[in-house]
Amino acid sequence: MTTIQTNSSKKWNIGLWVAQVALAAMFAMAGFMKLTSSPADMAAMGMLWAENAPVALIKFIGLAEVLGAIGVILPAATRIKPDLTKLAALGLATIMVLASGVHIFRGEFEVLPVNFVLFALAALVIWGRNRKAPIAPRT
């Protein structure tokens, strides 16, 4: 019976790492783009919401996304304060809820599936690292 639990825990751990890496990759790319692109460039890439958004808000969102990407990987990988991984995932989930609200308000419903998938991945990481495959801190 112990072997089954160990195998199950290993599978959960691998699956959660895949989710964490996917979240980190998506948010690192999106955040870096917001930090380095002008609102006009972002609008040209299809992010029409950036046209009328304050530059400081765009940069803040970009910084939050990059820090969330780092936070969803680094604490778990180093096992230094691994609970910060769950908090980073919570922050990314919050960004997706807020982004969904903006897109609904603007009538940009075609973007909502991406927001939902990223929210679901973040929620999976929070739940999985709490219940299925927690990461123990270094001793």
Automatic annotation (TrEMBL):
Keywords: Membrane, Transmembrane, Transmembrane helix. InterPro entries: DoxX. It is a multi-pass membrane protein. The chain crosses the membrane at residues 12-33, 53-75, 87-105, 111-128. It is found in: Membrane. This is DoxX family protein. It comes from Celeribacter arenosi.
